[in-house]
Every structure is written in C-alpha cells, then in structure tokens.
Write a structure and sequence with these properties.
two-stranded antiparallel sheet, Aminoglycoside 3'-phosphotransferase, Chain: A, domain 2, alpha+beta, 7 helices
Length: 181
C-alpha cells in the first residue's frame, strides 16, 4: 500500500507531531476531471485492492489500544444515534440490525487523501481516522466528504464498495442531522 512511513514523533506540552516521509503526487480530486475514463477505472481497481489489503489486517486484541471507543458494532451504532430522536433511531434500527464484519478502515478515503500522478494512485495519506469499524463505514464515510463529486462516487466509490445502499441511505439520514465525526 503506498503510504507515508513514520520517521519520528515530536511532542510539546500542547501538541504531538508525527514526522513522515513524503509521498509523490497530488490529491486525486484535483486531477479527476483531467483523468481519462481508463485512468479512473484503474484508480478504482487499485483502490479496491488497497481496501481489501486493509481489511485483511486481523482485528486482534494485541492490535488494539485499551482506549478504543467501540468494542462492538452495537456500541458504534449507539454512539452514532445517541443524540438522535427516537423516530430517527427507529429508522436507523433496521439497517443497524444487519451484522457487519469489523475490519480495519482508513476512515477518510476522500479525494484529498488519495494522491495520484500520471493517472495512478501514488499514496494514501491522513490516517488519523483509521481503526476497526463495521465494514460499511468506509463507504458511507466517503460519501460524507465527497457528495459534490459525482464522478468520484459513480466512477470509483460505488465500484470499490458494492452492496451497502441501505447502510448509505441510513448514514445519509443520520449525517444530515449531525455528523458523528
């Protein structure tokens, strides 16, 4: 997976900084309109492979911090809906009742965080939202940040992730009320 490598952590009393290697390329969102259909399709194929690679990371207790917010998918869904009205929670309950695998997820795969050059993905950056989440989360989270980029959604996102239309409908409803992240 093309991603920056950590070099060092610098800490001050007010903040922590992670020094990383530089990855070549520009955000794919800046390049998308100039890319050919074949380049867009190749980017979708590559991204699908990278997502599969991430999802293959085992969710073992030794990989997890004791500070993980969500121990189960139910805990995650409760967090998403805790501030919502009873009616909204009722609408979400049907989708949230579908069990999903908990997989490692980047958590913010939007066109700003996917770098490309010459029509090829060269890097995936900004990993601060990564963690183990329900398998649909990457798909619905991508829609939060790129709703205005229709070609990205139709040309890439929906090809990489298949079969989560109901989950997307519910997350669109919830995010319209209040973004959880």
């Amino acid at each position: 997976m093309p991603a920056p490598r950590a070099i060092d952590v610098l800490e001050t009393p007010d903040a922590s900084y992670l020094l990383m290697t530089q990855v070549p390329g520009r955000p794919i969102g800046q390049l998308l309109n100039a890319m050919t259909d074949e380049q867009v399709e190749n980017a979708a194929t590559d991204l699908k492979w990278y997502v599969a690679e991430l999802r293959s990371i085992p969710n073992e207790a030794s990989n997890q911090s004791e500070k993980l917010r969500f121990q189960t998918e139910t805990d995650f869904h409760n967090y998403l809906t805790e501030m919502m009205t009873h009616d909204t929670r009722r609408h979400a309950a049907e989708s949230h009742a579908i069990p999903h695998a908990i997989v490692f997820t980047h958590g913010d795969l939007n066109p700003r965080n996917i770098l490309a050059e010459n029509g090829k993905i060269t890097g995936i950056v900004d990993w601060e939202n990564a963690g183990f989440f329900p398998e649909y989360w990457e798909h619905t989270k991508m829609h939060y940040t790129v709703r205005s980029l229709i070609r990205w959604l139709a040309g890439v996102v929906d090809q990489v992730f298949e079969g989560y239309r109901d989950e997307l409908r519910v997350e669109n409803m919830l995010s319209g009320l209040a973004s959880p992240f």
